[in-house]
């Protein structure tokens, strides 16, 4: 008999007869084949926890274990004892109190003393289940009342002499939901099902999926044993061994799948060949390049050129901090494309950013024989027709635009090079549209100014080749970042006035609160009025930009600021990407505690673009959380985007980093790329060595890996990664 809904080895739990061949398919059996799982419970397990099969149940891991491997003596319990397991005889049962204070109290006695067991709920059921004079095994949280030890709502089982000193294993507790609990499937009841499943599984049902040399190298326990010990470990040490093995397995196969995509592309994908560096590139490099390239830019340019000349299609991620000079590298590659009679396209997520790229590129190339045009949603009538015609007849060298460039009506004569800026703003489908613009897909360079921590890059972008510009151009000054409380607002505004007196400009940025665009707007308007009270017209002129404005109004207000007709830009985060004003030397970020780290860093990158000293002031209200304070501290301490990205990953976790939440790439059950960096690096190295030495996995040692991947086909979304 068991009153806590948990398993004992003596329980007769069987799996219903499965007519399917159990040797090969037992793990694909529906969860309803386990005794105790009715159709209703099976439906709930599917809906609530995504448990459809034996395999799903096996991979539903406990979130903690309770140690019931030893017995405590009642006399040894003290106020410092949190949980205890005792065995003894019920000597007394009585009902006390009335109404809401009604409770059932029983006395349990061992050879050292006595403890009270108390129930406030389910009393009638307990009364029927326990009997004076019977021996019970009792577990629960210990409290003391009037110096007497007490356990409220204990877990209670008939005491057995099979193992009089406790259980053979640590008892697992599983994630559950309120709906499941209502149907008797709490965390421990799910454990009962898992225990039943493990009784009928043999080693052959969980064959090895790692190469034998790897298992030996890292002293991994067997896969079968890992699953047994993660659910019902003999000790904490056994549990840790199981977790280590299964974490490695998760990360290894993630790396291997990404590596296979990359390896297949490198081996089999046909690409356009840029085999010469011609007149356009050389002329630009010698006569028009506005500054000396950094060593990092030269290195990255070399990497991209090598790819583009290899006859394999390039898919490369280029990351670098704000202002590191990614665009100039992309432009030089677009000129190489033109030298090889190919067209190039640059796709940006917003019209503002597309306009900025267009202005800067046409400005640099104004004296060169290169045809550059822009295409956005705002391009109308005659202008649009002309751009489409130039694209189709090949007269156009470089097209810059928004997602408008991937519309079906846009036909290129010979597209060879595609640049995607701020890649996390675009989905896979949008990128795939670009590939269809030529019979042989163009080379693709995706750029991001959001530094990606190495661990995240290895995981979320592991199928892409990877370049980093990790140095800023000479002359770029670090931005002085200061944190000030709301009470210091007058002094902050006086400082802004001093900068304006020197002929500089300032941004004042307000947060977006996803839950309420109405509230956002109200906050912004209130903020705008407050700024006007500090900076009255006509002495000062203010531009305001926000998401509710029409595109032409927004653009006009931006341009007023760009041309220095206004000294202050009041804005929401729409200026996170897109505005380049070298004369702006101050950014004030209102309610800075409401922004994420990477967003704060992106915003800060809007200043410090000129030769003058620049400042970013983080204004915060009184209610900043610990995480928020940690973010602000990091911002003040460093300008290094990569350090910031690592910290952001550490604070928020991988699932909340922009672009990864929806991708499903980081949905590991056990592994955490922040805390398991060492395992991730090891898994990546092993995966790379395996694919380098045996890309088709035909060696005997690698056959378990190949078999496992083939079994998993169709169960993951890896094929959708680009």
Which descriptors apply to this entry?
alpha/beta, OB fold (Dihydrolipoamide Acetyltransferase, E2P), Rossmann fold, seven-stranded parallel β-sheet, 24 helices, 17% strand, globular, disordered N terminus, disordered C terminus
Radius of gyration: 33 Å
Give the strand content. Answer: 15-25%
CATH architecture of the largest domain: 3-Layer(aba) Sandwich
Q: What would CATH call the homologous superfamily of the largest domain? A: P-loop containing nucleotide triphosphate hydrolases
Report the top-level CATH class of the largest domain. Answer: Alpha Beta
Q: What distance lies between the first and last C-alpha atoms, to the nearest angstrom?
A: 55 Å
Question: How confident overall, as mean pLDDT?
Answer: 85
Low-confidence stretches: 1-24, 657-664, 716-722
Question: What is the global morphology?
Answer: globular
- Structural classification: alpha/beta
List the strand order in the largest sheet.
11-12-10-13-14-9-15
Roughly how much helix do the residues carry, as a percent range? 25-40%
How many domains? The number is 4
Task: Kindly identify the CATH topology of the largest domain.
Answer: Rossmann fold
Number of strands: 21
């Amino acid at each position: 008999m068991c009153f806590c809904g948990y398993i004992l080895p003596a329980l007769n739990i069987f799996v219903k007869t499965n007519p399917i061949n159990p040797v090969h398919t037992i793990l694909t059996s529906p969860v309803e084949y386990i005794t105790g799982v009715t159709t209703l419970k099976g439906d709930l397990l599917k809906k609530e926890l995504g448990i459809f099969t034996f395999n799903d149940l096996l991979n539903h891991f406990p979130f903690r274990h309770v140690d019931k491997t030893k017995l405590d003596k009642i006399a040894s319990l003290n106020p410092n004892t949190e949980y205890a397991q005792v065995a003894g005889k019920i000597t007394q049962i009585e009902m006390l109190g009335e109404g809401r204070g009604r409770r059932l109290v029983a006395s349990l006695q061992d050879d050292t003393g006595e403890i009270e067991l108390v129930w406030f709920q389910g009393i009638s059921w307990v009364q029927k289940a326990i009997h004076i004079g019977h021996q019970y095994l009792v577990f629960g949280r210990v409290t003391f009342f009037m110096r007497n030890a007490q356990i409220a709502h204990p877990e209670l089982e008939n005491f057995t002499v099979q193992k009089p000193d406790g259980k053979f294993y640590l008892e697992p507790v599983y994630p559950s939901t309120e709906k499941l609990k209502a149907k008797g499937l709490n965390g421990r009841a799910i454990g009962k099902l898992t225990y039943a499943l493990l009784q009928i599984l043999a080693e052959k049902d969980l064959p090895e999926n790692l190469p034998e040399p790897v298992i030996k190298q890292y002293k991994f326990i067997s896969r079968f044993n890992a699953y047994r010990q993660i659910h019902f470990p003999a000790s904490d040490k056994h549990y840790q061994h199981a977790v280590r093995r299964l974490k490695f397995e998760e990360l290894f196969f993630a790396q291997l799948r990404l590596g296979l995509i990359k390896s297949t592309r490198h081996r089999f994908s046909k690409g356009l060949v840029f085999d010469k560096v011609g007149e356009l590139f050389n002329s630009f490099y010698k006569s028009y390049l506005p500054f000396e390239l950094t060593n990092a830019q030269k290195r990255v340019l070399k990497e991209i050129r090598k790819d583009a000349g290899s006859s394999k299609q390039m898919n490369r991620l280029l990351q670098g901090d704000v202002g590191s000079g990614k665009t100039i590298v992309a432009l030089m590659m677009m000129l190489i494309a033109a030298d090889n009679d190919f067209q190039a396209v640059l796709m940006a997520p917003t019209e503002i950013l597309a306009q900025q790229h267009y202005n800067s590129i046409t400005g640099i190339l104004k004296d060169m024989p290169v045809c550059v045009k822009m295409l956005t949603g705002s391009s109308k009538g005659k202008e649009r027709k002309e751009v489409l015609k130039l694209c189709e007849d090949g007269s156009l060298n470089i097209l810059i635009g928004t997602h408008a460039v991937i519309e079906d009506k846009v036909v290129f004569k010979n597209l060879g090079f595609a640049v995607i800026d701020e890649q996390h703003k675009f989905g896979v489908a949008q990128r795939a549209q670009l590939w269809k613009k030529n019979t042989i897909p163009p080379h693709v360079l995706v750029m991001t100014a959001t530094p990606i921590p190495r661990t995240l890059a290895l995981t979320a972008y592991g199928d892409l080749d990877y370049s980093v510009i990790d140095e800023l151009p000479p002359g770029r000054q670090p931005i002085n970042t200061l944190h000030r409380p709301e009470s210091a607002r007058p002094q902050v505004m006086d400082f802004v006035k001093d900068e304006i007196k020197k002929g500089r400009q300032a941004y004042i940025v307000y947060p977006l609160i996803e839950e309420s665009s109405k509230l956002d707007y109200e906050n912004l308007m209130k903020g705008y009025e407050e700024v006007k009270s500090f900076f009255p017209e006509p002495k000062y002129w203010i531009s305001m930009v926000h998401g509710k404005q029409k595109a032409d109004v927004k653009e006009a207000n931006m341009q007023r600021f760009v041309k220095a007709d206004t000294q202050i830009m009041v804005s929401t985060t729409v200026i996170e990407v897109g505005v380049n004003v070298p004369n702006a030397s101050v950014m004030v970020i209102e309610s800075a505690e409401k922004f994420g780290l990477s967003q704060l860093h992106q915003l800060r990158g809007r200043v410090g673009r000129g030769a003058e000293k620049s400042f970013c002031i983080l204004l915060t209200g009184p209610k900043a959380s610990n995480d928020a304070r940690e973010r602000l501290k990091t911002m003040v301490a460093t300008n290094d985007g990569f350090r910031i990205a690592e910290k952001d990953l550490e604070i928020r976790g991988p699932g909340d980093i922009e672009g990864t939440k929806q991708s499903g790439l980081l949905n590991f059950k056990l592994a955490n790329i922040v805390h398991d960096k060492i395992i991730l690096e090891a898994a990546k190295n092993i995966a790379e060595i395996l694919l380098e030495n045996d890309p088709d996995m035909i060696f005997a040692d690698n056959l378990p890996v190949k078999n496992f991947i083939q079994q998993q086909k169709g169960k993951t979304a890896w094929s959708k990664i680009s």
